[in-house]
Each structure stands twice: as structure tokens, then as C-alpha cells.
Amino acid sequence: MSDAVQRDALKRLAAEQAVTLIQSGMVVGLGVGSTAIFAIRRIAELLASGELRDIVGVPCALRVEEEAQRLGIPLTTLEEHSQVDLTIDGADEVDPQLNLIKGGGAALLREKIVAQSSRREVIVVDEAKLSPVLGTQWAIPVEVVRFGWGAQARWIASLGAEVALRRQPDGEPLTTDQGNYILDCNFGPIADLTTLATQLSLRTGIVDHGLFLGLATDLIVAGADGIRHIQR
Ligand code: 5RP
């Protein structure tokens, strides 16, 4: 089995384990990425077989909305349901306190809005995402408004990061579902997450950043030795 196939199998295991936490009648946040999609597909299967009933989903990205509609999952909004019972989402890097870097799929803003409205934020990963210190493996995605994005890039660089504007394969800047840009900001291992998160949050022109601190309630990790469920 290739590494990619093996990793996909682990992602699927973690995602399907998370789906066992869903009960009929729940409002469920539908996360983004190659791991969360396994959960969405499983939810659709359980709805089709009648094992789950009366689920409504809150999608964390436009492409997830389209996929959920295609799979027949009824959808809602945070206007209709301001409280989400349980969200299943992926992450790019996870530390031992269940702090996260997210935004590899450029959906960090909607993902964070849904996470902060969720009673349970269940993160599903394969074990390669575990890290002793955030920033060791992944740059922090920072969503910025297009106007003046270069000024934000220089300011973030002045904090000590290597900053790159995220681009599409054709070389054009990637735009988020909100029409903003993403700056990938490599700080290396981050000693003080709270200070950095606060600095980024206070800067006008920065819409949000991919540090998810204290938002995950559960982590489901699939690895060579099986599945672990860690609760905060
Ligand atoms: C999207 C995200 C994803 O959840 C994160 O990038 C993990 O994706 P994958 O499961 O494909 O590795 O934050 O913005």
C-alpha cells in the first residue's frame, strides 16, 4: 500500500469514528478537507439507511455545501440554528493541548465561526498531524482583505515570519469564499501562541488567522496502533 493510500485509510477511520458521536436530531457542523469529507460521506450513508434521522448540517465552505447537497444531507445556517451540537473537522497541525493550525483548505474563517458556535468541536486527523509545538510543520494561514494585503504581509514579516501569498495553480492569487486572500506565514515553532494570536487578531486588514486555540473539545487520531479519542 502506498503512503498516500495508507494515510487516506487512517483519515477515513478517524472520520468515521467521529460520526459515531452524532445522534439523530443534531445540528452538525460539516468541516472541510480530505479527512472531513469521509465524515460527510458517512453521514450521508447513515441518513440514507435511516440509522440517523433529522440531521441538519452547517457547511464550513461553499464546496462542502455543494457536496452535502449532492449527497442529500439537509442543510441549515447559523441564522436558523445559532448553536451547533457537534462539528467534525480536520486540522493541519495539532499540539498536545489540542490547539490547532487550520486553513490548509483556505476555509479557516467559516471553520472558526462554526467551531465557536459548536458545543463539541471534534477534530479528526491521522497521526502525522501531531506536533509538540505548533508551527513546527505548518505555516499559519492568515486571511486578509485584498485592499492593502501587501502591507499586512510586510507587517507579519516584521513579527518574524516568512510570508507567502497563496496562489492557485495558474499563478493567480487564491481567493477565499469571502473574496479575501490567504497569506501563509511561517513562524517556525511558536513559543507563545496566545500573544501571536492576539497580535494577528488586533491588526486591521487581517480578517482571521488559522490558530484555533482552545476551540477543539475532542481529538480523534488514527495511527498505526489504532484510534485514540482524546477529550479536553
Ligand atoms: C481547511 C482545513 C482542513 O481541515 C485542514 O487543511 C485539513 O485538511 P486535510 O484533512 O485535507 O488534511 O483547515 O481550511
| SSE arrangement, N to C | HEHEHEEEHEEHEEHEEEE
Which CATH top level class of the largest domain fits? Answer: Alpha Beta
Would you report the number of β strands? 13
If classified by CATH, what would the architecture of the largest domain be? 3-Layer(aba) Sandwich
Number of helices: 6
- The CA-CA distance between the termini, in Å, is 34 Å
Give the spatial strand order of the biggest sheet: 2-1-3-6-12-13
Number of structural domains: 2
Strand content bin: 25-35%
Helix content: 25-40%
What integer is the average pLDDT? 97
Organism: Oscillochloris trichoides DG-6
Binding site for substrate: 32-35, 89-92, 102-105, 129
EC number: 5.3.1.6
Enzyme class: isomerase
Write the layout of secondary structure elements.
Elements: H1 3-19, E1 27-30, H2 36-49, E2 56-59, H3 62-71, E3 84-89, E4 93-94, E5 100-101, H4 108-116, E6 118-126, E7 140-144, H5 149-158, E8 162-165, E9 181-186, H6 193-202, E10 206-209, E11 211-212, E12 218-223, E13 226-231
Parallel strand pairs: 1-2, 1-3, 3-6, 6-12
Antiparallel strand pairs: 4-5, 5-11, 7-9, 7-10, 8-9, 12-13
The protein binds ribulose-5-phosphate (5RP).
